[in-house]
DUF3541 domain-containing protein
Amino acid sequence: MYRQTLDPKYTTTIRADVADMSLRLDKLYHQMHNKAELDGYVEDRLASYKKGKDERSVRRFEATQKHPEYFYIALDLLHHMARLDDYGLKHQHDAYFRKLLRGYDFKALFSNKTMTEAWAAQLANQAYWLKQIGEGDYTDLFVETLKKTYPDRKDYLLSQQQFGNKLYGMTHVIIADSGYYQHNVKESDHPWIYTYFRDNIDDILAYAKEDIIAEIGLSFKLAGLYDEPALKKIEKRIYSSVDQDKEMVPSDTGSFSFSWGEHRNVLAIMLLNWQKPNGGPDIQQNPTMFEDLPQSLTAK
């Protein structure tokens, strides 16, 4: 929301996020030097998916049990490093962490259809994060794998969950390319995605969840396609989904839980009250936001 509003009221939240990233990397550094703790962490993550009976949990368990290092290298380490990089910061063990990244086979990861079926949006993020922090450009490789995993001619074979996973992978390519709402994107860089959204908008509205639909709408806005007929349909759908009494978009089960629905509702706010992308915040542009940094962090 800061990147939409530039409102300084988000300073406390930003500082809390910086502190959280610092603590998570401190803990991960410790775990990397304590095999028993790291193994226990991986086992706990796998167990949480093994207990789930929904399709997403089953797919994530079956895919990631064969690649358990994905949890702490890609989902955790890379994520936290990229977040700090956004703020113009780095951890005191940055060199060690980069060595870990370089020892991980990202080429195999971004070529893996089974992992793509389980983690499409996350893989899109990770491909762009690696590019952002200067540790390799796998964006084209991931896009090709996404296309091969979900050929449009076989959409009719997809479960509702897998249709959503495909769409999430596509929207996160756009959102990640924008630096997560920091700058506009070019439609010409992703013509296949925008063509797909246009050609399949009715199926998307019929079968996708509100958060995915909102992200597709934001993808059009990030490309400056404000007069797009598909976008008009999306805005109408999301507006009609807002409960006027609670001023929230409920889940597909009718829940108004704020903690579970924050992402969905922030997307709805951004879609229906779109401003423009803005860079930052970072320590160079907004130094007062980053006073009293955690000891393990410095400006990059």
Q: What stands out?
A: The mean pLDDT is 97. The longest helix spans residues 11-32. The radius of gyration is 19 Å.
